[in-house]
Amino acid sequence: MENKKDLKYFMRSTETEIVTAPGPSSFKDENGKVIQFEIKVLSQEQINKINDAYHRRSMATDKKGNPLIALGEVVWKTEKDNAKASRHIIVEALQYPDLKNKELMEYYGCVDVTDMPLKVFSKPDEYQHVSRIVMQALGMASEVNDEEELQAAKN
């Protein structure tokens, strides 16, 4: 008698999950309440695609432009712009505020969406807060409780 395992547990909904989290304390509504951000939970595939877009691979060359060869093989160099990739992930995940909004981008004089998190959340504590809540929502960073945060601030 064969024990057949059910695969239905792995057939997840393909609906996009949106989570809310409080924005930085410097963004308040007309009633003085902190604005709630809406964050789309990106798939690992989407995150990988964004990261891959900021990795460049090219042939390593000497000062004269000749290819470098080691053990009979061409040497390759890889350049990664992790900071820009992280900002792009923030832009893709944030649904409110929508950092790709044409009007908002024009207001800040931006043409590259990866500059928007730096423009909108220009204070270091704002940017850190937004980066942290987005990365936590995506499961890319562990949640830091208030006690740990206070301790880190003291050190």
Which features would summarize this protein structure in a list?
two-stranded antiparallel sheet; 155 residues; 7 strands; alpha+beta; 17% strand; 6 helices; 3-stranded antiparallel β-sheet
Task: Explain what the structure shows.
The protein is an alpha+beta fold. It has helices at residues 44-53, 82-93, 102-107, 116-120, 124-137, 146-154, and strands at 18-22, 36-40, 55-59, 69-70, 73-74, 76-80, 94-96. It is flat and about 65 Å long. The longest helix has 14 residues, at 124-137. Residues 147-155 have low confidence and may be disordered. The strands form three sheets. It has a three-stranded antiparallel β-sheet with strand order 1-2-7. It has a two-stranded antiparallel ribbon with strand order 3-6. A two-stranded antiparallel sheet has the order 4-5. Strand 4 and strand 5 (73-74) form a beta hairpin. It contains six helices and seven strands. Helices cover 36% and strands 17% of the residues.
In whole angstroms, the N-to-C terminal distance is: 62 Å
Q: Considering DSSP H and I runs of 4 or more, what fraction of the residues is helical?
A: 25-40%
Largest sheet: 3 strands, antiparallel
Number of helices: 6
Order of secondary-structure elements:
EEHEEEEHEHHHH
Strand order of the largest sheet: 1-2-7
Judging from the principal axes of the Cα atoms, what is the shape? flat
**How many strands in all?**
7
Structural class of the helices, strands and pairings?
Answer: alpha+beta
- Low-confidence stretches are 147-155
Mean pLDDT: 88
Beta content comes to 15-25%
What assembly state would you assign to the polypeptide chains in this entry? single chain
Radius of gyration: 21 Å
